[in-house]
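Run: sequence + (2S,3S)-3-hydroxy-2-methylbutanoyl-COA -> complex structure.
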Amino acid sequence: MTDPVSMRRDGNVAIITIDNPPVNALRHAVRKGILDNVIAARDDASIEAIVLTGAGRTFVAGADITEFGKPPQSPHLIEVIATLDDVKKPTIAAVHGTPLGGGLELTMGCHFRVAAPGTRLGLPEIKLGLIPGAGGTQRLPRLVGIEKALPMILSGDPISAKDALAAGLVDDIIEGDLVAGAVKFARSVLAAKRPLQRVKDREDKLEDIRANPAKFDEIVAQHAKKTRGLHAPAAAIEAIRLTLDTPIDEAQKKERDLFLKLVVGEQSKSQRHIFFAEREAGKVPGIGKDVAPREIKKAAVIGAGTMGGGIAMNFANVGIPVTIVETSEDALKRGMATIEKNYQMSVQRGSLKAEDLSKRLALFTPTTDLNAIKDADIVIEAVFENMPIKKELFGRLEAIAKPGAVLATNTSYLDVNEIAQVTHRIGDVVGMHFFSPANVMKLLEIVRGKDTAPDVLATAIVVGRAIKKVPVVVGVCHGFVGNRMLSARSIEAEKLLLEGALPQDVDGALTEFGFPMGPFAMSDLAGIDVGWRSRKERGVRNEIADTLAEAGRFGQKTGKGFYLYEGRSARPDPEVEKLIVDASVRMGVKRRQVSKEEIIERLIYPMVNEGARILDEGIATRPGDIDVIWLYGYGFPAWRGGPMHWADTVGLAKIRDRLKELAKETGDKRHEPAALLNRLADEGGTFAGLATAKAA
Ligand code: T1G
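>> structure
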């Protein structure tokens, strides 16, 4: 392993370069290398200035998250920064790519920071359930002020180099050769004999708020979103508040204590689990970098309804021209009108510039002629969830699409293998299951047919990432992974209503758990009639939801469903309570008090059980894949890490035993513990341990 940090000279300027691919994370050897080289340059009288920079695609992107949870090794980052603080020669951090977290904190040990255009700078620790732990909460406010620093730290979102220059986080933007520009900047500092003020000594941007500390709480009120039981935001605010009245050395110690408490907490462990699980989810065993994805320059979407329109928007949003096909001019016009309305809303919200609206729409080629997809590199169908309709369409696509085009179905639960069988290019067929609204939800289930070609699978993953989704590869079964587990939860939710709970009890328990909304509010949003029609087609009945639908209570779209609506605000409806009580009588179920704890157990344990079966059947590769699906597809709270990670924290034996009881109490075979769950529970194992075993 070559040294991850090296130093060369350009005349009287030392250039210290960090080279630790892929993101120059600050693992122990990197911290030690920086420290040794800074000390060497500091003590070398012939060196008059120091430039600190990173090789590869980015400056330091943070502490090495894989080191958390292991015993911290000196030199700690805070020691490296303290050594930089005391260098009496000009120190200049020359950054590019994504100087984040500890990487940005490292630069704030230098007198100056210069950035390449396009650099994005931030403190994303909050996204890992942490706070900056090496001075960031004290130094960023000293450079940019509390009004800018607090929202940056609470959101964890990076800012552009331009924004950073305006805010005072960087001192210059260097066009062209970054290092040469930084050396030139260093020489200009020397020539001008510019005063060298340490970031830690800068107080000017704190004067106003120190004189008017009430302003701090106003800023907090503006930016502290509903954190629903999250620990890191509160800790971040507590740390930043120290800038008002606590000397920085003491404040940095308190910041460190807050950080160390968070880093061993379940919430941060869960969020760090998701960070890595999300990256693992797109890796398919046996499909390495040697499998080249097909090039996608042009897309086509069949169907301009809610899903088709949303899917097409994803391509236009990243500049990929997309042909969108409907069966009639009317349907096409309606679809394009919805797309245009969505973009207009984005312009109003400021996420799309008005002048870009027409450019974005120009990327669409709306048509009723299916032949227009003949030169598309990928064709995604989003027509009715009906097997004969999909088969007929794929038969036609087969004759029109160009050789090598990826043929994807957006089906949410139908058998991709059966669809593929109607074509002679079954290797080109794959499932790309988007979640509604398709232009918003980040999850993309990539459904691997038994004959899907490796390069087609690789292409679907690369395209998924390119259109800013989180792709997870799943196998073929009814409902794949997400919806299969959702149906386990929905069955229990309906049974809980019959047994004594009300919609607001069930939804309330799940929102308190951390979901953005519960199953009944979700049904009202999606439309109770959607499930009702599908159940009628399949000859199954859901007593309460179908009774509501038969009463014309479809949910938000009819102003009433499980709840009564005034606009989007929902409130419980005594009529629904009566309807539920009558249903219990009809079904001969004696109503009783149902506790919050029981609701959570009854809703999530069966999901975990179904997840274990899914792993046993190889429908999902890793437990983390299931966690990522539930986070990005259904809003499972990141600070609980997803259903399988959460199950590990509850204890698999406890879950297994409760499921066994339920199976006995209810006679419902679905509660029989899955073989994998039984095995892990018996061994005292965890789902996480399973992933590691697989990886080994
Ligand atoms: N530590 C360890 N590995 C990391 C890493 C990190 N900080 N960041 C990325 N990786 C790995 C990642 O797992 C993947 O591995 C590969 O690098 C490429 O990442 C003290 C305590 C920088 C914007 O939170 O946001 O500093 O899958 O696929 O899409 O106060 O990575 O290839 O094996 O994401 O180009 C703060 C986290 C840490 C930044 C690049 N920093 N990283 O995105 O590539 S806490 C962060 C990112 C901290 C201090 C605190 C992104 C990226 P593999 P990638 P990318």
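>> summary
Residues 22-23, 25, 61-66, 77, 98, 100-102, 105, 124-125, 128, 130, 132-134, 136, 276, 279 surround (2S,3S)-3-hydroxy-2-methylbutanoyl-COA (CB under 6 Å). The chain has a mean pLDDT of 95.
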